[in-house]
Every structure is written in structure tokens, then in C-alpha cells.
Amino acid sequence: MLIVLALLAALAGLSWPSVRGMLANAQLRAAAKQVRVALATARWKAVESGEPQRFRYAPGSNWFEVGPLRSAAEEPHAPPGQGRRPARTQKTTRDFLPRGIWFAEPPGLEQAPDRPSPPEASDEDPDWRTVIFHPNGRCSQARIVLAGDHGLSIEVVLRGLTGTTKIGPVQQREQ
Q1: What is the pLDDT, as a whole number, of residue 119?
Q2: Which helix (H) or strand (E) holds 130?
Q3: Mean pLDDT, rounded, for 116-140
Q4: Percent of the chain with pLDDT over 90
């Protein structure tokens, strides 16, 4: 009985690194899907409300925001009785990536002409990267890279004309 238990423990010890690698891949893919859903939500809100929306994140952090391009405090207010319908106030929602995953800068910022660039730095805060969605469904092209603790990364590419996203394969992160 002890020999069988020792063999099972040795087998579990040998297989643990591959199991840990599979778990890291799955966690990174789930985070990429979470970002894809947030991008689709921002696009949907822009089309539905008729107001530009933004998806923004800070490289090196694990959180992001989806909300209107202009906050409610920045909106110009028309005097009452001017026939203008009051704008619906939209809140900015903040969400977090799973523990151990963060937004990274894309490697090699020099891009091929057909390759999307990383999101632009925001004028209001240069540490943020922002993707803007317009009411017609178009957006700025973007390449968002997520990195994990185990030296892995995954890329989410956003097409500007159609607003569609594509999740790339999990890769070893370049140093």
C-alpha cells in the first residue's frame, strides 16, 4: 500500500508542472475573453446611446474602465425649455483582470502597415491607453497585450472598421 502511494505521489510530482502550465494558459485565455467582452460592451453602449464610449487601461495594472468619453460633469447643460432632451447619465464601470494577469505594452512598437497599433495614450492622463468607440460602431484600431506571472502573454486585436476582436494564441512573453 505504501509503495502504491509513493508511486502516485511521484507521478503527481512529475505531472504538476504541465498541469500548472495548462492552468496558466486557461487563466490567460479567460482574461482575454473578459477584455473582449468589455470591448464589445463599450461598442454596444456607443451604438445604443449615440455617444462615444471609451475602454481604457493603464499598462502594468490589472484593471480597466468602460464608460462615456465625456463624464457627466463635463457635459454641457442646455437651459430648460430649449427642446433638448436631457442626456442619460452613464456611469464608468471599473473591472479587474484575474490575479496574476496584467496589461502589458506590446513588444516592438514599430508596426507593419497592416498591423494594428497599441491604443493611444490619453491626453488627460498619459499613463492610460484608451480605445474610443464611436456611435456608428467604428473605433480606433488597437492591439492589447495581457501578460501573466508564468512568462506567458496573449494578444487581443481590435479592428477599427468593424469593431471586431480577435484573440491570439498564448505565447512566451518577450523580455
Answers
A1: 62
A2: strand 129-133
A3: 74
A4: 43
